[in-house]
Design brief:
Layout lengths: L4 E6 L6 H12 L1 E5 L18 H4 L4 E2 L12 H17 L3 E5 L3 H8 L2 E2 L7 H8 L3 H9 L13 H12 L9 E2 L4 E8 L2 H18 L1 H10 L4 H7 L1 H10 L6 H24 L4 E5 L4 H14 L1
Parallel strand pairs: 1-4, 1-7, 2-3, 2-4, 7-8
Antiparallel strand pairs: 5-6
C-alpha cells in the first residue's frame, strides 16, 4: 500500500527553513505545518522567529498560535494535531510540508512514533514542582539520562522523564514506529561561521523590532516567569534582563547570542543523526536542488 507523500524541511535556527518552505510550497501547490515547540503559543512571535503573514506570501500555515502561553504542550499533543493538519492538506489535493527545528516534533510525525505512556502521578508531580529545574536535570543525569535540546529547559518534559524512570520505563528506548507517510527530508544548513553571523544579524533585528517589549508584555498579561524560564533562549535571557540578573542590553545581546549559537550547534548534532536527510547547499542554489529532489520523489 502506497503511503501519501510528505516533505520535511528541518535544520538549525537562522538557516532559512521558513523561507525555503514557502518558496517550495508555492511552487508545488503545498501547505505548511509548523514543527516548532514554541511557535505553537500565541503572542510568542519575535522571540520564536515566527513567520509573519507577509512572509507567508499566501501559503497556508498550520499549528501556529494553537495554545495559550503557560499552557502545557507536548509532543504527544502535537503529533495528532499535525496528523490532522497533514491529512486535511492531502484531502484538499495539496502537498504537505512539515517545516521546523524541533527534532522530536518532526520525528514523531515523519517516523510515526507510537506513544504508550503511563498516566501522570499527581503526588510525584507535586513533589517535583517544588524543585528548581536544575535539580530535575541533576536527578536525571545522575541516573544516566542524556538530555537533548528539546527538554533541557522544559520543566514538564523533565518531570515526565522522571515519572518514566520511576515506572521502570527506559527514556532512551527507541519509540515504536508506525509511519503514516512516505517522507522526503530536506535539511538546511550553512558553515558554522555563516550560521553564527546569521544568528547575530537576526538577533539584532529582533531586538530592534521589540523583542524585549514582547517579553515584558507577556509578563504584564500574567504569563509566569517560570513559563518564560522554561521556554529557554530568548525568553529566558530577556526575563533575566528584565529582572536585573543581566545588567545591560549589551550584556543581554552577548549572552543570548552565545546561547543561541550553542543551541544551533546542538540542533546540528541532533539532525546529523538522521542518515535520511538530504542536506542542501544553502550557499548555492537550494531552491533548484530541493526542487529536483522533490520532483523525483513525487514521480516515484
Amino acid at each position: 500500500m502506497l503511503l501519501p507523500k510528505l516533505i520535511v524541511i528541518l535544520g538549525p535556527t537562522a538557516c532559512g527553513k521558513s523561507g525555503l518552505g514557502v518558496a517550495l510550497a508555492k511552487k508545488y501547490g503545498g501547505e505548511i505545518v509548523s514543527a516548532d515547540s514554541r511557535q505553537v503559543y500565541r503572542g510568542l512571535d519575535l522571540g520564536t522567529g515566527k513567520i509573519t503573514l507577509e512572509e507567508m506570501d499566501g501559503v497556508s500555515h498550520h499549528l501556529l498560535d494553537v495554545a495559550a502561553p503557560g499552557e502545557q504542550f507536548s509532543v504527544a499533543r502535537f503529533q495528532p494535531m499535525a496528523y490532522e493538519a497533514i491529512d486535511g492538506i492531502l484531502d484538499r489535493g495539496h502537498l504537505p510540508f512539515l517545516v521546523g527545528g524541533t527534532g522530536l516534533y518532526v520525528r514523531s510525525v515523519s517516523e510515526g512514533y507510537v506513544f504508550h505512556e503511563a498516566p501522570p502521578d499527581p503526588l510525584l508531580r507535586a513533589e517535583l514542582e517544588s524543585l528548581p529545574i536544575e535539580a530535575l536535570r541533576d536527578r536525571l543525569t545522575a541516573q544516566g539520562v542524556a538530555l537533548d535540546q528539546d527538554c533541557f529547559y522544559n520543566r514538564p518534559r523533565l518531570v515526565r522523564l522522571i515519572e518514566k524512570l520511576r515506572d521502570g520505563e527506559d527514556p532512551h528506548a527507541e519509540a515504536e514506529q508506525k509511519p503514516r507517510y512516505d517522507v522526503l527530508t530536506l535539511g538546511v544548513s550553512y558553515p558554522r561561521e555563516t550560521v553564527c553571523q546569521r544568528i547575530d544579524d537576526r538577533l539584532t533585528a529582533r531586538l530592534e523590532a521589540g523583542m524585549i517589549q514582547e517579553v515584558a508584555h507577556l509578563r504584564e498579561e500574567g504569563v509566569t516567569d517560570d513559563f518564560l524560564e522554561a521556554l529557554g533562549l530568548e525568553y529566558r535571557y530577556i526575563l533575566h534582563f528584565l529582572t536585573g540578573a543581566i545588567p545591560t542590553e549589551e550584556a543581554l545581546t552577548e549572552e543570548l547570542g552565545r546561547a543561541i549559537k550553542r543551541f544551533a550547534k546542538r540542533q546540528v548534532c541532533w539532525f546529523k543523526k538522521d542518515r535520511d536527510v538530504h542536506w542542501l547547499d544553502m550557499e548555492a542554489e537550494p531552491l533548484e536542488e530541493a526542487s529536483r529532489l522533490i520532483t523525483n520523489f513525487l514521480s516515484m
